[in-house]
Specification:
It is a single chain. With about 230 residues, the protein is α/β, with parallel strands linked by helices. It has one domain. The chain contains seven helices and seven strands; from the N terminus they run H-H-H-H-E-E-E-H-E-H-E-E-E-H. It has a seven-stranded mixed beta sheet, sandwiched between helices. The termini are far apart. The model has no long low-confidence stretch (mean pLDDT about 90).
């Protein structure tokens, strides 16, 4: 089916300048972005999670946490970064048809110079440290196929862990992805791992095939102990 041009494609066409901006986005950016995310997690814990028993929450857990997390990421940003952060951002690049809804990121850092270029984060609730099937499915079906993060060599998954130990989740995720999860050198004291993959790039596209997936586990039970 023929696809017309979006506003974004008109404003930031696939020119050499666009490709250069997208490539420069990857140079050491992840440590800065995810540093904001980890700080926001701690603030979310102090301002929200430490005040409640999250085990009593029954509905909209993932969306609620993401909605409360995103503005706290902004609180740690100066506003002068070459990117900004938004919740619920559409990826028009990988839309299937004019009438179909494009993929929607939970959270995305967006490059100011070329707003079609995004660094996405997807979140999944982990009710236990063994409940990783939906988490892994998201990676395989979306990140590995370039449906998510088509222009980026990196992206992140966040596990909102309600009970259990992050180490157990990492072992299970690594087994299901058939790869090794290694510590991130800048977040070695955090439940933060990274895995490296070769993606399936759609025919005719020049998306980067090499992809790094960050795995951040937010263990919410830590905050119950300080209530």
């Amino acid at each position: 089916m023929h696809r017309g041009l979006t506003i974004g494609e008109l404003c930031w066409p696939d020119t050499p300048e666009f490709c250069s901006a997208a490539e420069n986005w990857h140079s050491g950016t992840s440590s800065v972005l995810l540093g904001f995310v980890w700080k926001a997690y701690e603030l979310l814990g102090a301002e929200v999670l430490a005040k409640i028993d999250i085990s009593l929450a029954e509905e909209q857990i993932e969306r609620s946490i993401t909605q409360y997390l995103t503005p706290r990421i902004r609180e740690y940003m100066s506003g002068f970064e070459p990117f900004f952060v938004e919740q619920g951002v559409y990826e028009f690049e990988t839309r299937l048809s004019p009438s179909a809804q494009p993929p929607l990121y939970d959270i995305a850092f967006i490059l100011r110079d070329s707003e079609r270029v995004m660094w996405p984060l997807e979140a999944k609730v982990l009710k236990t440290d063994k409940a990783t099937s939906e988490y892994v499915k998201e990676i395989k079906e979306n990140f590995f196929t370039c449906r998510y993060a088509p222009f980026s060599r990196e992206g992140a998954m966040i596990g909102y862990m309600l009970s259990g130990k992050p180490e157990q989740s990492f072992l299970k995720i690594a087994k299901e992805l058939h790869t090794e999860l290694v510590s991130h050198r800048d977040f070695s004291d955090r439940p933060h791992k990274i895995s490296f993959h070769t993606r399936i790039v759609p025919k005719g596209k020049k998306y980067p095939s090499e992809f790094s997936c960050h795995h951040l586990i937010f263990p919410f039970q830590l905050f119950w102990n300080i209530r």
